[in-house]
Amino acid sequence: MNNTVCPDIKAVIAKALPSCDKCFSDEKFDSKKEKNSFKMLKNQRLTFQVAYIKKTPELDGEIAAELVIDSPLKDYITLYSIEEVPNYKPCYDETDDDYLRKTSGLYPDLLMPASPRFHRIFSSRLRAFYVLIEKADGIAPGTYPVAFEFYKDGDFLGGTEVTVEVVNAMLPKQKLIYTNWFHNDCLATYYDCDIYGERHWQIIENFVREAVSEGMNMILTPVLTPPLDTGKGWQRPDVGLVDIYKNGDDYTFEYANLDRWVQMCERCGIEYFEISHLFSQWSAANAPKVTAYVDGAKDKTEIFGWTTDAVSPEYTAFIRAFIKNLIEHLKTLGVDKKCFFHISDEPNMAVYDSYCASKNSVIDLFEGYPVIDALSEFEFYKSGQIKMPIPAITEAYPFLEQTDLPMRWTYYCCAQHNKVSNRFLSMPGQRTEILGVQLYKYAIDGFLQWGYNFYYSASSWHIINPFIDLSGDNWVPAGDTFVVYPAPDGTPYRSLHGMQFSEGLQDLRLLQFCESLVGRDATMALVNNGVEGEMTFHDYPRTDEYLLTLKDRVIDTIKENI
Question: What is the pTM of this model?
Fold first, then answer.
């Protein structure tokens, strides 16, 4: 390249940043800490950012420039423009101080696929690219330069260069079971398409493929319409995958949609199926919405719902017949041993009796199958009412002290906002990514979050525009309800906070790989290097430097021991 700056053009300055950074447009370029060397395994995803601005400080317009990527790794690079989105609820009023900002405004998050051809560069507004290098399995190990160069009419304006070391090792398959609740109804409503029509199916598959690429290997499977985040007396669209026929007191079931769902999910890379909840959220006091073709009718009728007592004889007879038939069908599909079942979401001790009554009405049917629920009060486990709880990370410690847990699970949602990791747009990226290290430290087997693509308001009263409302109509901190944006063509746009979470999952895999080579004690020594006291879900290094150094040390250790 001819790197002679044209004297008639004001130059551009650029620098590479770690992937956990967040560039607000009103930040000063000099405030951003540069990182220009990176390491990756051959099949690893490497991500970082390139921030850029006009060199002149005065407000004198913009430059329309072309970006040229010059590198032997060029064919493995995908480029995204990091766009700011409105954030009206960055956090709760009372929380800790480890937030980037606590005021409403524009926050960097939306990752738009970027063409290198045309970019506007301002002196008054800091901008950044998100760089993804992946699928480099076939490239020879070694250290490669990657140059990012801005040009106008053939004249070099400025840029930056990084080096990427490709290590001759392959990252092993993810062990962690990870589910981020997938909402079929939100996609149908947002895109205004018929539920389980051909367009809906294609959109679902597009979103499932992206979820898998970001580490999700378990999917919420709505055999009945999930009774989740729905105001009492209100209903979400009917997305049950099983067609139910009621003739007198007898039930029959048709599984064409469920069969298609399983085939599609497995084709996309899903390994586990999380069967939707059998009783209402927060109390287990009512039935979920259940519709059926009654006595030969051509249209479905609601037969159970908010007015149905969870342990009524009528619902008990139905749900037991349904579970028995469903499990037999899952066996024919060859996936029954990949299925996890739910009773009710987030019960507390105030509804202990109703939860236990609902659970006990069906639990005998799940012999040999895992039953999991998000609940955080230890009494549920201590009393023997649940064998595989999913406590919030804020309440996980007493559960993790138990030696007879068949699997260790944890979760977070909007309520886990003080001191612990989460994925809010207002949090530093390293606070999101650190979760991977914490999951390794506690040997966690499964992680749950509730919002992969929730595009409704609180209680699902109405659809929202996720490009301008990231809080479910001012309900929860932005970043809690979804990690992908719905593109006009029925595909998902990635988000910065979603990719930073995915980075944490990859950190977990790196640590597990390292452990397979040098043992857990040696790997934990790497983790604890630079940690004051004991790392917990509440106490951990708050700087990006810790994560960056740890990853480099882990990759170096892998390189030395393969």
Answer: 0.97
